[in-house]
Amino acid sequence: xxxxxxxVLSSEVLAEGLIRIILHAPEIAKDAKPGQFIQMLVPGEAHxxxxxxxxxxxxxxxxxxxxxxxxxxxxxxxICSAKEGDTIRCLGPLGTGFDGNGAExxxxxxxxVGVAPVCGAMDGFATETSHAFFGFRTKNHVYGMTQAxxxxxxxxxxxxxxxxxxxxxxLMEAIEAKRPDLIMACGPTPMLRAVQKIAGELxxxxxxxxxxxxxxxxxxxxxxxxKVNLEDGSWTYKRVCKxxxxxxxKEVEF
Amino acid sequence: MADLSLNLCGVHLxxxxxxxxxxxxxxxxxxxxxxxxxxxxxxxxxxxLGGRLGNPPSRITETASGMLNCVGLQNPGIESFIEHDLPWxxxxxxxVIANFFGTSIDxxxxxxxxxxxxxxxxLEMNISCPNVHDGGVAFGVKPEGVYEITKAVKxxxxxxxIVKLSPNVADITENALAAQEAGADAISLINTxxxxxxxxxxxxxxxxxxxGGLSGPAVxxxxxxxxxxxxxxxxxxxxGLGGIMTGEDAAEFMLCGAQAxxxxxxNFTDPYAMPRIARELDxxxxxxxxxxxxxxxxxxxQY
Lengths: 254, 303
Prior knowledge:
heterodimer; A: alpha/beta; 5 helices; globular; B: TIM Barrel; 8-stranded parallel beta barrel; 32% helix
């Protein structure tokens, strides 16, 4: 974990409503693992909280980090306005990421901006028998399709790419054909809840990457805590920034 | 190089910078970034006997030049802190300030007493958390309540007792005086200002607790005013806090009459904020020709 001025190597539109920024951040890239994130300082003095952004790709050799950012609020808009050559203060790598755990066949599930960390997980853990399932709103929102080292099935809300279906439909069909050893997922809460239900009913190990508003990003302030179930049937709060963002789906209480 | 050190209620601090409770955990996370023994002190995450789970998410959100939080005093308990965290923290050569709270006078007293046999250097009593209904806010509103709780807890405190005051009151100077009369060794102010944040598109509250505590640069002018007013009324030391982001911000609080300051929200913006603020305060003192930072205290030129 280190706080550095990362240089913007490129910033371009990745898909509708999504900007891809590639940073030169060798000190972070050398230690970064799939599913981890960085805390990006918003330029200017008006914003006191950093923005947690997950890693879409990390290249230790090149010293680069690839991010997919949705410029939804003022802070992310300011971050996305950074041009090639600018620097952005970044703290990372942060959090507990995905764990391949030696799984032979992994099914990856991503929805919307949640496809980005899933791409990072695929780079780290995908095998030839693995399969990714991505859900997008329309064909204009599609990204992350080319770098996958395993088969990818995309669906969309309007049928403009792949089937007009929820991502859980092709996921279920694939599970029925071949049961995976592990599922890794990131996306909107309804999608994660559906994936959690499938994994739970079929008793398939599953890891979910969660999103929450964050303060410090390093586990000190407890601002991003979410409810998790414990094995003895009780529950507690855990830190998305430190204990997560990736949790065992059995733990997660939506 | 100015001398930044001070003696606060008999406790030596290397510099007047204390990490504000709730923003710094028990110091472990920040110690991974820099040696926390560079700090004057650490006011640890607010503790109670038996621990507390806190509020449901969302607990934090940014606002204009500030942020709101409603963590709700989640903590592992004084017992757990003393067993698992304090021994480590005491190796760090930094003043350890145990921030604590209770839900009744008895539980406040028992909490203060629990620290008596430990190496904690000071106690900071939270009678002003705006985010929990039974977290002592009732004691922190009126001077009579501040007096009653301070008097009772002081009798059970071995270490110097700091009373942390709420700004969400009619006249904070009345509460400062009540704390002093009841035997408080110092006061710290201000805790957060109660506020709300709204998701206008969903027409919904952002924080699950509905209300939260406002901190950051947005509250600094209010905090400065309150420290300045209290400094004119009380003779016990004042620890000022509220939106300190730079060494000059820290100096402003000292000019108003604070001997020491606390840094909270800035730790989120810049995880290296506190060592940086110490360097900046040092540079400010040099530029002002001040040899000891304590010479700044209460020297504000007023109209």
